[in-house]
Amino acid sequence: MVYKRQGFTLLELLLASVITLLLLGLVAQGLRSSGDTSRYVQSSQTMLEELRFAGNLIGDYLSTAAFIYPVGVTLTLNTPESYTVRNPLTNNNTWTVGTDPIIAAILSPRDPGVKCSETVSSGPPRTGPQGCYRFMAVYPLKRSWVVQNASGAENPGSDPENNDKWALYIYERNLSGITDLNERTVIPTAITGSSGNLLADYIKPGDGLTVGYEKCLDFEGKDIASLGPCNPSSRIDIYSSVARVSFALAGQVTMKGKSYTFPGPTQPLVFQVGARNLVIRK
């Protein structure tokens, strides 16, 4: 009589178990990878929109600027004790245009018909800043420095994996001492008081904000300005203003040891701006 074999041997069961575990591990790894990718896509879309908003806001400011600081000018913002003005390259509160990642300008009054110190009680609420020339600067800070010192809504939140990233800040200050821009106006380079405010988070360190000064005012002995190249100069008056600026913004975030740059590794958001309110006649 011949008996047929039934069931599995212990060895076969062990092999089947090992194969099953390997397959489950591969499936779990695929699900984790898919989840990480999905989270990155969602986060990057949000951060990209934040970056685009920041770039458009900077462009709007520069397009209405009455003066844009030229290459070579060194600016001192507030005091060294103010965490919102600390240069991430030098760790102090001085910035050199064209060397450090900064764009600075003097903006025209929002309402030229209102004195800088005047409060308008009729109509919509309007106070002194409506009639003031304003200093404006955009620059990055070290994210770890911001997290360490900022409070409330200004603190973007601890994220040790991204301590090396930058945060983009905007600094504004009313220039009550300037009532008009003309050839006698002393262009300020030391701005006291005020503080910067967080504009965008997770900026790529090193080259997350790059600035190109494309065209500057060029009089060449004439009454009407033309546009010429922007060369470093010690001259700083209303006739040395930059007229056309390009700047690029790039973000970066590290997730589980892997860094992602947005919009892309070699494709930052690029903006080109021409200032419309510059003084063009001596």
Explain what this protein looks like in three dimensions.
This is Verru Chthon cassette protein C. With 282 residues, the chain is α+β, with helices and mostly antiparallel strands. It has one domain. The protein is built from two helices and 14 strands. The protein has helices spanning 10-63, 143-149, and strands at 65-68, 74-77, 94-96, 103-107, 133-142, 166-175, 190-191, 196-203, 209-218, 226-228, 242-249, 251-255, 258-262, 269-274. It has a five-stranded antiparallel beta sheet. Strands 10-9-11-14 form a four-stranded antiparallel beta sheet, with helices on one face. The chain has a three-stranded mixed beta sheet with strand order 3-2-7, with no helix packed on it. It is elongated. The termini are far apart.
Give a quick summary of the entry.
The protein has 282 residues and is of the alpha+beta class. The chain is built from two helices and 14 strands. It has one domain.
Give the SSE layout.
Elements: H1 10-63, E1 65-68, E2 74-77, E3 94-96, E4 103-107, E5 133-142, H2 143-149, E6 166-175, E7 190-191, E8 196-203, E9 209-218, E10 226-228, E11 242-249, E12 251-255, E13 258-262, E14 269-274
Parallel strand pairs: 2-7
Antiparallel strand pairs: 1-4, 2-3, 4-5, 5-6, 6-8, 9-10, 9-11, 11-14, 12-13
Protein name: Verru Chthon cassette protein C
Main location: membrane
Keywords: Cell outer membrane, Membrane
